[in-house]
Amino acid sequence: MYNTDNQLTIHLYFNAVEVELNKNKPTCFVVSSNSCTFACKTNNMAKHNDTGKWGEDLAADYLRNSGYEIIERDWRDGHRDIDIIARSPDLRTIVFVEVKTRATDVITKPEEAVDRRKIRNIGMAADSYVKMLNVLEELRFDVVSVIGGTKETAQVEHIVNAFNPCLAF
Question: What is the pTM (predicted TM-score) of this model?
Fold first, then answer.
């Protein structure tokens, strides 16, 4: 039986590390090895990916409407990626943009999810991009924070010069 948080708690009398109920059900993990209590949550990865894509679309529209030229979306260098690569309105700066989307900022602000490891990865991907395309313009690293669930109610914040990846090493 599920509670309102979409969680299921099962008390078992044998030891197990993980139980997959079936493909349409949640996966369960041990939370307390003493009582063999399992907490289950449904897999929200697809929803998470949809939310991120929606936020990136909103961020790209916001930047375009602010005079930026979108050069690339979801640019990849191996396992590293850059959400948006844009040219500034004055055409002098290439801007590498990390987009963070959350339904709410009650627990944490989206931009706070850009940690040192993410900054280093963005910096390394940007370095590859610059070398590959022989970019000569100035470089800048921004964050666009998107909070909300619909285009009409979303709050978009553009944080210019949000970080310097050289300082993350």
Answer: 0.70
